[in-house]
Give the backbone structure.
Amino acid sequence: MPTSRIEVFTERSGPLFDGAAERAVYEWLDEVKLEAGHIGADWIKIEALAFDKSGRGGTGRAAEAVTVTPFGAFNDVRIFGGMIAGEVWWPWLEGISRRNASTKFPGYHTFRRTRLRLRRYAPELAQKRLEEYITRMGGTVT
């Protein structure tokens, strides 16, 4: 009985096989997270500069206390409102402190609104940044 033998040899190369595409994806994600964090912090600072429910005028310390810090194992980013005794206490300004109940101050809810606003803006930001990384992932932008 006749037999046949077929040998297939394929050489794999390029960004999908050498890890460049995977690295580009993680770099893209890290860049988007960091940029979104800085944009959100800027939005919070802009709102904080206008805080003036007392009528005495804002000092700007609440805006100065807002920072963007990395955390976690996945290069996540946290927007943090500072807590400096006698100067600024973001939990109270946000309306989530126990002190809000006694002072009857409802808070500005700046972080909460910014979080919702960033959720709507993030897909657009990610898409803009993705086009820069597609070629590094082995694709083409049309």
About this structure: The longest strand covers residues 66-71. Helices lie at 15-18, 20-48, 61-64, 90-94, 99-103, 110-134.
